[in-house]
Amino acid sequence: PDVLARFTTRIVADKARYPFLLSNGNRIGQGELADGRHWVQWQDPFPKPCYLFALVAGDFDVLRDSFTTRSGRKVALELFVDRGNLDRADWAMTSLKNSMKWDETRFGLEYDL
């Protein structure tokens, strides 16, 4: 854990087969290629050990919501689940929002991405 890196990741894949391309951090770019592929670029501004790097490509259902931080900033939230399981994602979204509020209340930590 003492060797840390910042990651910028560009993922390119067939859009029909892999409509969602996910990685750590903030999505900073995306586009379509002429051959049916698409790309997404992610940048994680916080140094972290390489074992926390993640990359996911697939076809998912998405549950979208938002969380308003104590300073009033609105944060978009997305949960990606296997197709057909969207009805099982509400508990996870509620848990995510509760944990974000708890971090603010207990530790004074506001979401910073």
Automatic annotation (TrEMBL):
Keywords linked to the UniProt accession: Aminopeptidase, Hydrolase, Protease
The UniProt record lists the keyword GTP-binding: no
GO MF entry, a single one: aminopeptidase activity
InterPro entries, sorted: Aminopeptidase_N-like_N (IPR045357), Aminopeptidase_N-like_N_sf (IPR042097), Peptidase_M1_pepN (IPR012779)
Positions of the Aminopeptidase N-like N-terminal domain: 1-52
Keyword Phosphoprotein belongs to the record: no
Designated name of the protein: Aminopeptidase N
Encoding gene (name): pepN
